[in-house]
Amino acid sequence: MPVCRARHHRVLTRVAFAFTFDRSTRAASHHHEPAQPRPAWFTDDLQALADTATRFAERECLPHDARWRAQRRGDRDIWNKAGAAGLLCASIPEAHGGGGGHFGHEVAITQALALKMAGGFSNSVHSGIVAHYILRYGTEWQKQRWLPKMASGEIVSAIAMTEPGCGTDLQAVRTRAATDGDHYVINGAKTFITNGFHANLVCIVCRTGEAAGGKGLSLVMAEVDGLPGFRRGRLLDKVGQHTIDTCELFFEDMRVPRSHLLGTEEGQGFRQLMEQLPQERLIIAVGGIATLQRAIHETLAYVKQRQVFGQPLMQMQNTRFVLAECQTLATVARCFVDECVGRALRGELDNATSAMAKWWVSDTVGKVVDACLQLFGGYGYMNDYPIARLYADQRVGRIYGGSNEVMKELIARAMDKA
């Protein structure tokens, strides 16, 4: 399905022209990456979109990487530039301002940006997660109000789930939205919020009733610019992913119209989260595939030129065996994730399978990147080398989107019910 939003049509027409008539130029832009077999669902249209994302990363992200790492966030205008390039809300229907594509378009963008190690903004949260909560559960008024501006980059979105001391246990959420006439009065705190520093629109997981556990949860959208009672905390100093803004959010008697509730009734938040989390977890696995590919490529290039005891490091049996194991794991992971994406496109991806993809791929990424870094020796510990940054950036994959221990519990529960 082509991404054919009117304001992006000229961009993708040029991309399609380049793809058809200038394959050599397109290939040259990827000369440093090994060719990978394409699954059946990865069409020429998706390749053209991936090429657009690659060029965007090279032009708009990588030149600012060092500065963004130092300030622990990208510049706000990167969102507007990404919107103009057609990289935001690619899988949202044109009728709601999106690209008219499907989940495969998000995959193409996610993997292209991850392969380039391009940070500065978390599109997977904005386009792959928050936009789909609005699309799936929002009223027509809500969709028209928020989705077109999210697609253009005028609005940056975040989802506020995690609370201090709560972690992955969403049923323990304490943030409360009390009814006061036509408004909710929201009090609480959230932490580890990706896009939190720049967010104009926040999807808040909160309690709207007295029911315990997940039954009392709802999703409420808050337009936070200049909103009394809303406060951003400090930018968090993370181990990795230094260009992605992550911060704390605080709500103190913050008033939000009740018309901003997602869904037709209160208390549906936990069900909504459970329905959408499989796609979030698959997106994490999708990014992991690109990390595996980049780590192996960087390592292979290094060991071919590094001399040890008078010969290239690649000629030593240990090096060859380690890389053979890494390539095998990467290939198995890619095949599994490609199958999961195919299921998602057919509407067949279940919660347990997405949990398998999330935990196994993120765990495999950790093992492979660690093994690759070891082959660099002392240089692998230096942040001047991409492998060191990959090592730090990938670690959170086993934590966010639900810890890997929770993923295994979800899989075991599904087995119990079988």
What can you tell me about this protein's structure?
- It is a single chain.
- The chain is an alpha+beta fold.
- The protein has three domains: 6-155, Butyryl-Coa Dehydrogenase, subunit A, domain 1 (Orthogonal Bundle), CATH 1.10.540.10; 158-267, Butyryl-CoA Dehydrogenase, subunit A, domain 2 (Beta Barrel), CATH 2.40.110.10; 270-417, Butyryl-CoA Dehydrogenase, subunit A, domain 3, CATH 1.20.140.
- 50% of the residues lie in helices and 14% in strands.
- The protein has a four-stranded antiparallel sheet with strand order 2-3-7-6, with no helix packed on it. A three-stranded mixed sheet has the order 1-4-5, with helices on one face. The chain has a two-stranded antiparallel ribbon with strand order 8-9.
- It starts with 8 loop residues before the first helix and ends with a helix.
- The model is unreliable at 1-32 (pLDDT under 50).
Largest sheet: 4 strands, antiparallel
Read across the widest sheet, the strand sequence of neighbours is 2-3-7-6
CATH class of the largest domain: Mainly Alpha
CATH superfamily of the largest domain: Acyl-CoA dehydrogenase/oxidase, N-terminal domain
Mean pLDDT: 90
Tell me the count of domains.
3
Task: Give, in order, the helices and strands.
Answer: HHHHHHHHEEEEEEEHEEHHHH
Helix/strand class: alpha+beta
The CATH architecture assignment of the largest domain turns out to be: Orthogonal Bundle
Beta strand %: 5-15%
Question: How far do the termini sit from each other?
Answer: 35 Å
Q: Rough shape?
A: globular
Radius of gyration: 22 Å
Q: Tell me the CATH topology of the largest domain.
A: Butyryl-Coa Dehydrogenase, subunit A, domain 1
Give the uncertain stretches in residue-range form. 1-32
What's the helical proportion of residues? 40-55%
Determine the number of helices (DSSP H or I, runs of at least 4 residues). 13
The total strand number stands at: 9
